[in-house]
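Input chain follows. Return structure tokens only.
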Amino acid sequence: MTKPPIGGNRTGRKLSQKVKKGKLKASSRRWIERHINDPYVQRAQLEGYRARAAFKLLEIDEKHKILSGARRVIDLGAAPGSWSQIAANVTRSTDADPQVVAIDFLKMDPLPGVHIFQLDFLDPTAPDQLMEALGGAPDLVLSDMAAPTTGHRQTDHIRTMHLCEVAAHFAIDVLATGGHFLAKTFQGGTERELLTLLKQNFKQVIHVKPASSRAESVEMFLLAKGFKGRSGVQKSAEDDGHEDDADDFYADRDIADDVEAN
């Protein structure tokens, strides 16, 4: 069972370390202090994960079982690679027979069992390269992609939502029937068109916020479970005989309690 760290941690490091002022800006110093005192950061180091983000995926899987039975996985926006680490372990992927393909425009250090592309996913050639490397339909498409932040919340939301939409269309194009799609989004409202598209193509669509996602963060994760397959998918809401309402969707959200990293 994945549980948030409580109190101290097995590293023996105190959760109240301070960073000397020096020449650092106050904002930079606060970020560093928060990072080094974050129990999830310390736990990731202890357990060999490349980033604290590993626990976000593990907590989501603990409740929603999206990794169970996964044989092939595509990881979008993968750097530094903690989600790919988990996927490679679950699929028993090897370098000789990779079952996990990862992509990021940032450089990633090699990972056993993971075929890594340093490439922008918006590159027109990226989808075909990923599928060729994987050698079959994925059971799970993960996307932790987020646009570089500008400091303007609405702009950041729009830019990251665009990446989420591109990832969703890709997932619908490539997933095996019964597969799942998990993508980062930001609080502020998911576009109705995207929600409608996902609900037409998946059996269940919800928002989740794992405990390891910082309480002050606006990030959430959009989870679409049980891909219906490409036979008759992407129909209009009218053809389905109903019209999805974003307000109804948000009434069904599954948001875990936030846990502050302090």
